[in-house]
Amino acid sequence: MRSAPVTAYDLKLALPLAGFFALFFVAPLLILILVSFYTDTSLTQFGLAQYARFLLDPFSLSVLVSTLWLGVKVTLLCLLLGFPLAWTFVRSPRLAQGVLMLIIVLPLLTSVVVRTFAWIVILGRQGIVNNLLLSLGLADTPLRLLYTDGGVVVALAQVQMPLMVLPLITALSRIDPNLRDASSALGAGAWRSFVKVILPLTLPGIMAGCLLTFAAAITAFITQSLVGGGQMLFMPMYLYQQSSTLSNWPFAAAISIIFLVAVLGAVTLFNLLGRLSRGYAQG
Amino acid sequence: MTESLTTQSLLLDRITHRYGSSLAVDDVTLDITGGELVALLGPSGCGKTTLLRIIAGFINQGEGSVIIGGKAIDHLPPHRRTIGIVFQNYALFPHMTVADNVAYGLAARGTDRATQSARVGEMLDLVKLSAMADRYPRQLSGGQQQRIALARALAVRPSILLLDEPFAALDKNLRLDMQIEIKRIQRMAGTTTIIVTHDQEEALSMADRVAVLSHGRLEQFAAATEVYDKPQSYFVNTFVGASNVLTGKLMDVNGMEGTVSLPGGGQWQGQLVGALNRGAMVRICIRPEHLAFSADADALPGKIEIGLPLGATIVHEVRLTGGASLKVAGPRAMGALALPPGSDIAVKPAISGAVRIYPEI
Ligand SMILES: Nc1ncnc2c1ncn2[C@@H]1O[C@H](COP(=O)(O)OP(=O)(O)OP(=O)(O)O)[C@@H](O)[C@H]1O
Ligand SMILES: [Mg+2]
């Protein structure tokens, strides 16, 4: 009943926003779709040539797959590191929570470019990591960390970490602490309590965090390009090359649409999995 | 399966606990016989929940020892203690059905599925909620959730059952039903039970013995009737049941008896509680039903302020000539009316030994 007044607002009030969306989101998207159906760069002939070109080209497909795979790796790393962090945050005293929260959201308060350059400094041949390894005698020559897959994953994970940790914190702090106590009084050890009680009740937060991190990681043009360097090509850069450098607009448009569909597909699949586990979680 | 069908005694031996520097439990010793139902009674913040959490092992007490069936269990984590606990907010697992909630402790102990489901059925029968087995906690009423929490705690046959204000969220009728229910189940299972409450009627009606706590200290631990009839401290006397309080001066001491002179004139005899010397200023307590109107010389004169006929009893509010105000309660005869306000009367204790004398502050 409480939601009634919300929908009772005059729908006309939503018109400016609707207009904004129509003009700057729906219209460009339609144009994009339209452009992707031209077979030539001068936009004269309709056809499916651009889609065929992408889907039949092993190189293009490998870019798509490696981009999605990059998203998966970053998401998993964020989850792996983010969960303990969120857990620590929830169990900390108030004062420590303030400090932790500042550290957690700090990446959001600095520019992506700045953060990415910081990673270049850290991972470079003369970087902090290599200097440390050399001076500890753990390596004889500087390791190649920059322009590697691992480097990109780590840098992206750091950059996107808040997107994972914040939903996890929300989910974890909503759990009644008595549930853990009830579980242990009933004879469950720490691990069983975690798997049977805490984890299922945190699932909505895990889902939200994973979706946000995944979406952000696969589209992170700046970090992907700067830390990945020229050797690694991901969808955003591929798109950029085709449109800006080669001015092949129809192909770039087709890449966009395919990327969009692939991401939507991945998200839907993930949601489906989540729906199943949520069914297990809440009936 | 670890079953403890035999009833177990519980001894809290000189338990003290501090949160930081604030004392929550102060040197509490409780010796509870196997199968007994004990109520922990006390005002908010007196340390009741803290004591329960110490017994369950959720917090480690600073000093003292928890001993079950003669064995100290201080080193055991909660999941090794076989203690059932029902939380004030029930703490049912929201993502599990009623049946899964009740089976949780059995599964954690590695009981096989057939035994689990038999036991779950048995428990749900016990709390009369077999029809709800496949529901989720949010689909149950407060009273039903409470019964499921009880079934879940009892399913593993705990040696000790702890209930933290289990009826606080229930309305009066349901509360009475549940009190009777719990007492019945507790009798049948023979489980040593501690029930935390700040409702004194609940404590007096349900418990074999009542432990009264104040500021983390144990004020008295005795049978319900004894706590009411022979309170061992001023706090217990005023916290449990209604009491009139007067101040006076101790004129004479004779063993455990004392004579107190009251400010408005007159002297009353009473029981001394604690060591008191002649000439000390004292507080005396007497329950309204132990006072009566009297024409005797030692009765204190006063006027009726108001009279309330409450069905079976009549309560009169009396203003003494000395200034103090007293409540006098007595049975109401058929057709009897309250005395009109302003009537001149005099009151004195109707029963010897009903006046209790405590040190001033
Ligand atoms: N986690 C905690 N940290 C610090 N102080 C606490 C903590 N828990 C309880 N206390 C304090 O310890 C004292 C006893 O608390 P406790 O919860 O045991 O009281 P209680 O008798 O259960 O009260 P209530 O009837 O309100 O539930 C209170 O003064 C409370 O403020
Ligand atoms: Mg409490």
UniProtKB/TrEMBL annotation, chain A:
GO terms for cellular component: plasma membrane. CDD domains: TM_PBP2. The keyword Cytoplasm does not apply. The keyword Transport applies. PROSITE patterns: ABC_TM1. SUPFAM superfamilies: MetI-like (SSF161098). Keywords: Cell membrane, Membrane, Transmembrane, Transmembrane helix, Transport. One of its GO terms (biological process) is transmembrane transport. The chain crosses the membrane at residues 12-39, 59-87, 99-122, 152-173, 194-227, 247-273. It is a multi-pass membrane protein. It is found in: Cell membrane. Residues 64-270 form the ABC transmembrane type-1 domain. Belongs to the binding-protein-dependent transport system permease family. CysTW subfamily. This is ABC transporter permease. It comes from Candidatus Raskinella chloraquaticus.
UniProtKB/TrEMBL annotation, chain B:
Residues 10-240 form the ABC transporter domain. It comes from the Bacteria. GO terms for molecular function: ATP binding; ATP hydrolysis activity; transmembrane transporter activity. One of its GO terms (cellular component) is ATP-binding cassette (ABC) transporter complex. The keyword Metal-binding does not apply. Keywords: ATP-binding, Nucleotide-binding, Transport. One of its GO terms (biological process) is quaternary ammonium group transport. PANTHER family: SPERMIDINE/PUTRESCINE IMPORT ATP-BINDING PROTEIN POTA, SPERMIDINE_PUTRESCINE IMPORT ATP-BINDING PROTEIN POTA. Belongs to the ABC transporter superfamily. This is Fe3+/spermidine/putrescine ABC transporter ATP-binding protein. It comes from Candidatus Raskinella chloraquaticus.
